[in-house]
Amino acid sequence: MKEIAMTVIVNGDKHDLTVPPHETLIECLRDRLGLLGVKKSCDVQVCGTCTVLLDDRPVSACTVLAFEARGRSVRTIEGLARGDDLHPVQEAFVEHGALQCGFCTPGMIMATVALINENPRPTADEVKHYMRGNICRCTGYKRILEAILDASRRMSGASAGNGR
Amino acid sequence: MAADRLTVVGRAVPRLDARDKVTGVARYVSDLALPGLTHAKVWRSPVPRARIIETLTERAAAAPGVLAVCAAADLPVKRLYFGPAYRDQPILAHEVIRYAGEPVVAVVADTERHAQAALALVDVRYEELPAATSAEQALAGNASLIHPEIERAGHFRDLSGLRPIPGTNVCQHYAYQRGDLAHALEDADLVVEGVYRYPALSHHALEPHCVVARVDGDGLTVWATTQHPFPVRRELADVFDLPLAAVQVVVPLIGGAFGGKCYTKTEPLAAALAARVRRPVRLALSMEENARTITRHAVSVVIKTAVTRDGTLLARECDVVLDTGAYADIGPRVATKAGYRAPGPYRIPTLRIDAKCVYTNNVPAGAYRGYGVPQVTWAGESQMDVIAERLGLDPLALRLKNLLKRGEEYVAGDTPIDGDLAEGLEQTARAVGWTAPLARGRGRGLACAMKDGGGTHSTSTAIVRINADGSVDVLAGSVEAGQGIRTALAQITAETLGVPFASVVVAAPDTSVTPYDWGTSASRSTTIMGLAVQEAARDAREQVLALAAPLLDAEASMLTIRDGAITHGDRAMTVAEVISGHYGLVGGEVTGVGSFVPGKSSGDGRGDGSEIHLRCRRRPGHQPARVRGPGRGRSDAGDRPGALRGARERRRPAHESRADRLSGPGVHRPAADAGDGPDRERRRPRTVRRQGRW
User: Fold this and answer.
1) What share of residues in chain A are helix, strand, coil (percent, to 5)?
2) Looking at the domain that runs over B31-131+204-291, which CATH code has it been given?
3) Cβ neighbours of B621 (radius 10 Å)
4) Domain with CATH 3.90.1170.50 in chain B
5) What residues of chain A, 44 to 83, have a C-beta less than 8 Å from chain B?
6) Which of B15, B16, B23 to mutate to test the interface with A (most CBs of A within 10 A)?
7) Are B355 and B322 in contact (CB under 8 A)?
8) Do B276 and B74 meet the contact criterion of CB atoms below 8 Å apart?
9) Could you confirm whether domain A4-79 is CATH 3.30.1360.70?
């Protein structure tokens, strides 16, 4: 099987990789690059648990082929915090207790980052609509919704550079 | 310690695992890798019942990367069958297939892809047999016996009295009766009867079952997504005929459980394959396989209630049939609990309850939030609304009129009700604006259910170690499945010892390190393990004070630890100074031990405590409100163990909260035109469109 040479930027770092054509992005990120914060759950693009950003747009890493990221930029949960400084979305999730088992949390946070990037001050209904592709089985969503709304408030109150 | 002097317990503290979980650093079983790790995949039966004629594995065995292809006979085990109630479930199907999705052949390969590819080359020849795919079929007179013989597992004390009905597919029969039923029905102004059906559900924890198993000179080590590390250890010891000490079960963080990870599931298969290939094996199920591993029981409830014109409940008859699938799992206990809880939290003088747990050729059903409560509550509370409608009563008033009061007995001899159920229900009604006019197209309803207290028949033990630098290790076998147990136990420890919350670390369960715990289920951990940890922390504190007394020229009884320091007059020492002062400069520790053993504490070993869980829906798409009986247990916050306070004051386990919830935010309601009367209507709960709801 012919392998595909590709360059991809992951969390700001450039990687030169050779991948088989059937390799999925989640396999590439978890097994090749050790980014285990990308969680595998349904594996059929239903639950949103494996959400990562591909050129700042949210995708399910389970159903994107690795080579589709060729020449593009991928951001995972590992690429959000700067050292000890959490991203405002991460801070909001901690402060609002918007997680329990935490398995959906990386995907939930990445989808939130994409949402706020597209729509800096979403309404509650807009959040619910945007986040429909992310399932949480523990929390009942209320605290996640509160955290997302709070994060959007904080980020729009901060200077543009803090949006990261 | 007076409640108002609590400094850590009862306060909102950040979850210990929150930062790791938002940064992607948190590690779950499915993230674990070991040197030389191999991967297993399972060939599952496409048919619900069959006789296996032949299993041809040569082609699969020759496929790239394949290390082993195993049918049941190829597994290096001493005992093929396991199960918490009956030893009825083979690790791989042996001679017969009992449900569609049952594991029949396992492939081990160097990569997951190679194992998956080789599955297509497995050739199982079988003769399909007529299957019973519903409890009705399995109860029919001509039904084949799915298990002609069953062997009791003997793992749990409360299951020693299992009552299967010989010659049938019934693996547990619970019956309860009081009062004169015929008389009560005659006296009634209204008798309402209905049939309510509840479908099987998948737990859908976001991390599917995953096991990594390794066999080495010391024995067997299994990293597993289980809520029951110690019962799993016991079953693995049975399967391989090993001493308990040679089996180590480790449980890192797990990605949700909801009962689906109770007891033993795929651990024996992964361990047997590791023993076979002599390399570590990872068996990670897909979400589809997960749904073919365990479900919540499909249940039918035939329920008849007799009332007077003013809404006083006179009698209730309830026939509950649970479809436990091909293997009993913990179904017999679910059936018993469903029967026990079927009357609901009401004063009903006359009762006849019958609950049967029935083998079928469906996916096994087991524990799932509430152990039968959701199924019987769906029936009973639907019928309460029918009664209110028929009598022209307010559904809230009807419930309030019949709710048990504090001090009243639910079942004679059991601990009486110790919460104010009516106040809880009234609070709920206020929260949803019960008397406010409804907008067009809106509905409003409320329901209540009762669950007897969890896990007081069971044991937890804990160790609290104070290190020479004053930091504290808590060794406790409670599994962190998202409920915040590690945070709660750290709070209890910090509070009891008088040390800073930040100085406490709670270990992950590891049967070779953490002392015995019955399991993380039945809403028991904050209370039962919490009491064990509290006792261990007291033990450690007393030892530290005894060491400090001579150093401070004081009686130990006069001393206390506050914020990690012991003060006497104008002299003060830190805990670290006391310990290193006693042992020498560099080392030593103080080890406290605690346990909760049924009967040892004032708990009588029976389920105690009652509370109502009320879920209301204001309008579609909104989160249901959830209000608890006043002064009971915790709030819905994941990690505020107010339960400790209740437990401490009463020395009786109160309820922990979250795991008791019904299955997620969806609320099952009867159809709006739900009728009643002699012609039984069959009703199904409306299917929730997805597992969760934004």
Assistant:
1) 40, 20, 40
2) 3.90.1170.50
3) 10
4) 31-131+204-291
5) 44, 47, 49, 76-78, 80-81
6) B23
7) yes
8) yes
9) no
Please, what are the averages of pLDDT over each run of 10 residues along chain B (694 residues)? 75 93 98 97 98 97 98 98 97 98 98 97 98 98 95 86 95 97 96 98 98 95 98 98 98 97 98 98 98 98 98 98 98 96 96 98 97 96 98 98 96 89 96 94 92 82 96 98 97 97 97 97 93 98 96 94 94 94 85 89 32 38 34 32 31 31 29 33 44 56
Domain with CATH 3.30.365.10 in chain B: 3-26+458-596
Chain B hits for A79, CB-CB cut-off 8 Å, are: none
Residues with Cβ within 8 Å of residue A70, at least 6 apart in sequence? A4, A6, A7, A8
Cα–Cα distance for residue pair B531/B594, rounded to 1 Å? 8
Q: Where in chain A is the domain with CATH 1.10.150.120?
A: 88-163
Contact B255 A43 (CB under 8 A): no
Contacting residues for B607 by C-beta, under 8 A, at least 6 apart: B414, B415, B452, B453, B454, B456, B457
- Residue B600 near chain A (CB below 8 Å): no
In the numeric block, which tokens belong to residue A75?
A: 């951001």
Closest CA to B632 of B664, B660, B655: B655
Q: Which CATH superfamily is A88-163 part of?
A: [2Fe-2S]-binding domain (1.10.150.120)
Q: What totals of helices (H) and strands (E) does chain A contain, helices first?
A: 5, 5
pTM: 0.89
Give the closest residue to B533 by CA, choosing from B114, B167, B23, B9: B9
For the beta sheet containing B448-450, the strands, ordered from the edge strand earlier in sequence to the opposite edge, are B448-450, B612-616, B625-628
Which residues on chain A are in Cβ contact (under 8 Å) with B256? 100-101, 103, 137-138
Cβ partners under 8 Å of residue A126, min gap 6 = A119
Q: How many Å from the N-terminal Cα to the C-terminal Cα in chain A? A: 39
Q: What is the rounded distance in angstroms from the CA atom of residue B656 to the CA atom of residue B260?
A: 19
Query: Cβ neighbours of residue B200 under 8 Å, at least 6 residues apart?
Result: B295, B296, B297, B298, B323, B362, B363, B365
ipTM value: 0.96
> What CATH number should be reported for the domain whose range is B3-26+458-596?
3.30.365.10
Q: Are B281 and B40 in contact (CB under 8 A)?
A: yes
Tell me phi and psi for residue B227, to 5 degrees.
Answer: -85, -5
